[in-house]
Amino acid sequence: MDERGAGAQPVALPAYVIEVGDGPLDRPARDSVGGWPFLDDGQEWPACFCGEKLALLFQLDVPADLGPFGGDHLLVFHCRAHNDASEPEYAGGRLVPRYWDAPQSPYPGPFWRILLQRQATLPAAEAEPSVCALPLTLRSFADTPSPRGIGAQTFKLGGTPSWAQDPESHTCACGADLQYLCQVPEGMDFAVRPGLPEQPYSVRADTYGMFLGNEVYLMACPAHCDPAAVWPVNQN
Ligand SMILES: [Zn+2]
Ligand SMILES: [Zn+2]
Question: What separation in Å is there between the alpha carbon of 197 and the centre of ligand 1?
């Protein structure tokens, strides 16, 4: 057994399916695949441990009714050159301090960055160069869990995760219990511009994926102890 807690899951948040629109998106939008990231003042475009600028896979404004995350802006970045599964590092019953920067064996640091920020009002001057920019739309839906407590297996915000394995709970380094916020379905990929280097282990040459195509459940710190205090749970 590892040190992960198995505490009760918090009450499910309202649910929104995230729909990827037909592109291309030719101007900044707060809800987008690729596109122009809306970053807080002083927040640099994040980089991988390998030095590559991380690719902006998607970003969106979290609706006001999504509990402690209402009004946040969520941004999900992932390396083009590194594609692996995440592995949580625990110490003393909590994720290690600054787990968002902690080594990811065999790597000296993480190959992704997930941000929840509250002050981003302006788009970056530069658009994400690799991932094709597409609009995103959020549509409210009833994510009624199955008798086993499993929600819809789709790209969604809030609702109930469709755990591919046992439900996971994680405790932030600050002591707060991380709360599930967003699910990216297994095998989801994002179209990239022609002629770019391929991502290792990606299913197709012209798309980038995340975490080896695992289903991803983003669990975020409800105390907002750091903009990067989000753990991407991987299951398949
Ligand atoms: Zn990298
Ligand atoms: Zn925290």
Answer: 13
